[in-house]
Protein backbone atom coordinates (compact mmCIF):
# COMPACT_ATOMS: atom_id res chain seq x y z
CA UNK A 1 0.00 0.00 0.00
CA UNK A 2 2.79 2.47 0.86
CA UNK A 3 4.48 1.97 -2.50
CA UNK A 4 1.20 2.53 -4.35
CA UNK A 5 0.42 5.67 -2.33
CA UNK A 6 3.87 7.10 -3.01
CA UNK A 7 3.53 6.42 -6.71
CA UNK A 8 0.08 8.02 -6.86
CA UNK A 9 1.39 11.01 -4.91
CA UNK A 10 4.23 11.64 -7.38
CA UNK A 11 2.26 10.86 -10.56
CA UNK A 12 -0.44 13.49 -10.37
CA UNK A 13 -1.86 15.58 -13.19
CA UNK A 14 -0.01 18.75 -12.25
CA UNK A 15 3.57 19.40 -11.18
CA UNK A 16 2.39 21.49 -8.23
CA UNK A 17 0.45 18.57 -6.78
CA UNK A 18 3.34 16.18 -7.53
CA UNK A 19 5.57 18.32 -5.36
CA UNK A 20 3.06 18.89 -2.56
CA UNK A 21 1.80 15.33 -2.26
CA UNK A 22 4.97 13.52 -3.32
CA UNK A 23 7.19 15.17 -0.74
CA UNK A 24 4.58 14.60 1.96
CA UNK A 25 4.25 10.94 0.99
CA UNK A 26 8.00 10.35 0.98
CA UNK A 27 8.36 11.79 4.46
CA UNK A 28 5.11 11.12 6.30
CA UNK A 29 3.32 8.03 4.99
CA UNK A 30 4.93 5.68 7.47
CA UNK A 31 3.81 7.93 10.34
CA UNK A 32 0.13 7.79 9.30
CA UNK A 33 -2.23 5.36 10.96
CA UNK A 34 -4.00 2.76 8.84
CA UNK A 35 -7.15 4.90 8.91
CA UNK A 36 -5.21 8.01 7.91
CA UNK A 37 -3.64 6.07 5.03
CA UNK A 38 -7.09 5.05 3.83
CA UNK A 39 -8.19 8.69 3.99
CA UNK A 40 -5.05 9.75 2.13
CA UNK A 41 -5.74 7.11 -0.51
CA UNK A 42 -9.26 8.51 -0.95
CA UNK A 43 -7.91 12.08 -1.07
CA UNK A 44 -5.68 11.07 -3.98
CA UNK A 45 -8.83 10.30 -5.98
CA UNK A 46 -9.81 13.97 -5.92
CA UNK A 47 -9.22 16.22 -8.90
CA UNK A 48 -5.84 18.01 -8.86
CA UNK A 49 -7.39 21.40 -9.55
CA UNK A 50 -9.74 20.99 -6.60
CA UNK A 51 -6.88 19.81 -4.38
CA UNK A 52 -4.69 22.75 -5.35
CA UNK A 53 -7.53 25.16 -4.62
CA UNK A 54 -8.00 23.60 -1.19
CA UNK A 55 -4.29 23.76 -0.39
CA UNK A 56 -4.04 27.41 -1.39
CA UNK A 57 -7.34 28.41 0.23
CA UNK A 58 -8.67 29.51 -3.16
CA UNK A 59 -11.75 27.39 -2.47
CA UNK A 60 -13.13 25.88 0.72
CA UNK A 61 -12.21 22.26 1.37
CA UNK A 62 -14.92 19.74 2.23
CA UNK A 63 -15.08 19.00 5.95
CA UNK A 64 -14.05 15.40 5.26
CA UNK A 65 -10.58 16.51 4.13
CA UNK A 66 -9.84 19.43 6.44
CA UNK A 67 -7.84 17.49 9.03
CA UNK A 68 -5.69 15.70 6.45
CA UNK A 69 -5.18 18.87 4.42
CA UNK A 70 -4.10 20.69 7.59
CA UNK A 71 -1.52 17.98 8.26
CA UNK A 72 -0.13 18.23 4.73
CA UNK A 73 -0.11 22.05 4.90
CA UNK A 74 1.73 21.91 8.23
CA UNK A 75 4.32 19.57 6.71
CA UNK A 76 4.96 22.16 3.99
CA UNK A 77 4.53 25.08 6.39
CA UNK A 78 1.65 26.44 4.28
CA UNK A 79 -0.47 27.47 7.29
Mean model confidence by pLDDT: 94
User: How would a crystallographer describe the biggest sheet?
Assistant: none
CATH topology: DNA polymerase, domain 1
Shape: globular
Instruction: Provide the CATH architecture.
Output: Orthogonal Bundle
| N- to C-terminal distance | 28 Å
Distinct helical segment count:
5
Low-confidence stretches: none
CATH class: Mainly Alpha
Counting structural domains, the number is 1
Q: Count all strands and give the number.
A: 0
Determine Rg (CA atoms, Å).
11 Å
Can you give the helix content as a percent range?
A: 55-70%
Strand content: under 5%
**What's the helix-strand series?**
HHHHH
Tell me the CATH superfamily. Flavinator of succinate dehydrogenase
Structural class: mainly alpha
